[in-house]
Design brief:
The complex is a heterodimer of chains A (121) and B (108). In chain A, 0% of the residues lie in helices and 54% in strands. Chain A has 121 residues and is mostly beta strands. Chain A is globular and about 45 Å long. Chain B has 108 residues and is an all-beta fold. Helices cover 0% and strands 47% of the residues of chain B. Chain B is built from no helices and ten strands. In chain B, the strands form two sheets. Chain B has a six-stranded mixed β-sheet, with no helix packed on it. In chain B, strands 1-3-8-7 form a four-stranded antiparallel β-sheet, with no helix packed on it. Chain B starts with a strand and ends with a strand. The chains are: A mainly beta (121), B mainly beta (108).
Chain lengths: 121, 108
Amino acid sequence: EVQLVESGGGLVQPGGSLRLSCAASGFTFSSYWMHWVRQAPGKGLVWVSRINGDGSSTSYADSVKGRFTISRDNAKNTLYLQMNSLRAEDTAVYYCAREVITAINNWFDPWGQGTLVTVSS
Amino acid sequence: DIQMTQSPSSLSASVGDRVTITCRASQSISSYLNWYQQKPGKAPKLLIYAASSLQSGVPSRFSGSGSETDFTLTISSLQPEDFATYYCQQSYSLPRNSFGQGTKLEIK
């Protein structure tokens, strides 16, 4: 079964740091682009960051650029998101998702169950 | 950047109703359009990819159509488990601004 399981969320003070993990199983992890998408309470889905299969290419939403770093360990089948200088507006459920790329389209499937990050003093 | 606009933002309907949700792209995205369902407290789930292809395991009452800038998600006969929030996503120019704002489908 293809599965993604996030961990590492929690309560952190403004200006603090947190590292999220996403453990993948059931597929060849290194063959896929992986993404982080977040959802603030009661709001919609917002893309955060992505990384290619070997970790050599990354990109970020403007709102997190310079503060967040995406990485992966293909030997451990794990995706990471290092979040520094956290702000109240970073409070959200963070999802990891696998990007499936075909000749006709790309899509995100599956998604992890999400991990809640709360930035508050 | 491509902007995705869904309508309506919310919708009340009854079990058995036929429901249509619309997603409009700010520029042509061919058929690079996906639909996701999200239930409260759960992760999004892929329903439709490439505008009209049904993901494996998704009931056939769900269907998608459209191309270029205008797309629709149709539920032919609403079931109790279909009450959720639905998001469209353009994959023509990933990843920025890829999601619509969502349509919350509520029970009337």
